[in-house]
DNA sequence: CGTCAACATCGACGGCCGTCGATCTCCGGT
DNA sequence: ACCGGAGATCGACGGCCGTCGATGTTGACG
């Protein structure tokens, strides 16, 4: 599978503005950024974070997004593969939670004030 | 043109993890993120930032990227339209510079520690 | 054990986007 | 005025991706 590797744990140390990053690192980082460069997935992250208990199942997300259930599942899979969400199956439901620090590590790569 | 609006000045106040962001804001933010969700453009930002004086012309960027000159110009235009780079034409050369705070404002939207 | 519901997977379709070569525009130098 | 070079624009092509309906899988419940 051409799944994007979870960069959340490995991209925490590339200031981006310091030295010209290599083609390999650029591809990795771009893959992670592409995971959140989508309106539906941004809203999913936001919905999960704002939901009660910091977790939400698919049934909680389909309606507010206005997309079909397969599409929502697809986006959630992308976010899980990117290391931004965790999936926990309890009974028939699948609960998704934000990975702590994942978004922050992405943000830290972009920040320029880290001189 | 379907140019992405510069979000650098307007997206500085959406924590993303606080309240579920609307479809409109999600589209705006996704457009900005898509601008940097590309290996070539990430390297361009990095190259410009690391270049002497914080500015670089196209001729400085074509070779290190290994892409054609039209492609580099295209990527630079995307970054300028996204409000991440400024373009200043001096003589025959076009010099590009990082917009101060642009990347940081994107990062601030992603950060979750702003509670 | 049969049924229903939640979710994932599949296959297909359409549009967007990265890339290129060719060309156009504009400025400097001679 | 002419030429050369820097860079932007154009048109085209190929691949990736978001979306859907249909279907498969799995667990709860009677």
TrEMBL record, chains A, B:
Keywords: DNA-binding, Transcription, Transcription regulation
CDD domains (UniProt xref): HTH_ARSR
A GO molecular-function descriptor: DNA binding
The protein's name in its UniProt record: ArsR family transcriptional regulator
SUPFAM superfamilies for the chain: Winged helix' DNA-binding domain (SSF46785)
InterPro entries for the chain: ArsR-like_HTH (IPR011991), ArsR_HTH (IPR018334), HTH_ArsR_DNA-bd_dom (IPR001845), HTH_MetalResp_TranReg (IPR051081), WH-like_DNA-bd_sf (IPR036388), WH_DNA-bd_sf (IPR036390)
Organism of derivation: Geodermatophilus tzadiensis
Domain HTH arsR-type: 21-115
Superkingdom, taxonomy of origin: Bacteria
